[in-house]
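As agreed, record passed on underneath.
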Amino acid sequence: MKKTTCSNILLLSAFSSLYTAAVAQKTTQPNIVIILADDMGHGDLSYTGSDTPTPNIDKIFNNGVRFNNFMTCNVSSPTRGGLLTGINPLRIGQAPEVGGDLDPKLPNIGNYFQKEGYKTGLFGKWHNSESPLRKKDAITVNQYGFDSFVGFYAGGIDYFTKAWTGWYHDDKQVEDEMDYSTDLISKYAIDFMTKSQRENRPYLCYVPFNAVHTPLNVTEEALKRVPASIRDKVLKMRSMHDYRVVSLDDAPPFLKFNAQKYKDETWLQKVEPLSPEEKAMLYSAVKISLDDNVGKIMDYLKKTKQLENTIVLFFCDNGGVPVFGNNAPFRGFKHSMYEGGIHSAAAMMIPKLVLPNTVKEVPDMCGFLDVFPTLTSLTKSKQTMPKNLDGVSLVENIKGTAKPQVERFYYWTWRDHDVLRSDKWKLFRYYNKVELYDMVNDISETKNVSVSNPEVVTQMLKQIDIECRKMGVASTHLPLPIVAQKPKPSGNALMIEFENNSSDDSKKQTLFLFVKEFKVLPDTYIEYDIKVDTQAKLSFCYLSPLKANNTIFSGNLGVDSNGKLLQSPTVLDNNWKHIAVGLSSFAPTKFTQFGLTYKFNGMGKATVYIDNIVIKNLKGEIVQEIFIDTFNKNAFKAKNISIAEVQ
């Protein structure tokens, strides 16, 4: 008995020590749950005025700290890249468009918190590198620092079949997990949290749902719960199968995949497009499913008493889409740099054990870049923070002890303009104009006040130049910040001959020249030397990479170092000219084709010479030579292109 009693005492003592250690661990290392919605507008929550009830998400806002001025990007991948790293995605090849491969060597919330002793998991949409199904030797999510991964790599999928870039469990593709993706994402997130707790490990659980991103795939149960005020506007309901088919009508690869998956050719039949009322109904059902699954996560944390030691953050990657997205009270939608595209509803629940006193609302401008440094501060991480982050810790703001923000800016570039945002002002800079909005008195951006605030415009223009250079952006809509070069043709050049035989044929045209692949990052630009013979009756003539067989330099894009658009009327004097144009508007991407864009101003022939075509970055480094003196003639796609010796 004495031995047994002694053993029991030792066993109880051991359990007691483990419990004490666990409690101590909980106190010093809180869990982290990041819930990211996809394409959900600021006004899409019942908390912010939507007719669709979202009670579970609303609870995060009611019980947490609300960020009233929370910035994102206007498309998915850049926001995700900045969230992961705390670095403006322009600096890491993840912006302004989608499609880049995040550098796995960069510190991110996955590999950083791994080193802090956390179990790390990601459940849902990645979209920061290519799918292993599409690219040989692709970097997997696990290699970025996540111990567990269930989800997909693409921008969107069919919620049931997971068409078309694959559904993965870690690095293994799973082809027959046909349950609704929103349900699966919460299920595997909860499984991960449960396992981490059993192992007595703190965890970082990143849950980027694919809802409410199209296609508008819904469950029958959620469809029945759509508010009557929305559902009753649909004049004639379709079958669930028909709604599956029609919701994929603008995604032919999904339809083809599903036809093969289900062995059912009806997936390929033409269907009547969704009416606006049907879109609103399906969108409401997708939101209901999202809210249900956020509720499952929050209920799990509450029932297991983990809310006492778990930081929960909710926001969305960008604004809602036109037709059915609600971005109230803001102007614009996804793909827009107005607030409707970049201003997300955001809230964070922080346990008293982590931060005893917090404010209810943070009015200061902040955003996705600040998540990483804020989490490291809240968790009192032992590692040194990565250097040169663009985000800052918001802990003092959350505590209400922060000093008024001075000189805090968020910077974006998008197609034919770039944007600078502070707490008070927002500047849009185009090739030939600026817009200025007062973000204190006009959050809906209804009135351009640039004319009445010239001093502010001057200050903001100075600052936007600083930010543009800091981010290393080779703007496509502005002259490059480089020293002008003189043309240096030598050896061989490309010679292109063409003509206009009709007085009616004097519109802009593009001649497809040759194929040569190159990669574009935000700091990439193209330069070349060009000469046009004096007999040519041309208004303009320039070399351009092609997208879908069309020049990429159009509208207000394609500004040379002299500050003029390439398609501006040009004096053709038979002298060589040096051209340098930024490509940031299209990054990150690859181009494979080149063409000559021109416009005749009368009938006649033209001969154009082009030499020294290179792709550079703003450091002055040659990224890739396209043509210097030699060229594979098999790559020529135009009969009227040849090699000529420079005279």
Summary: Residues 265 and 287 are 30 Å apart (CA to CA). The longest strand covers residues 604-617.
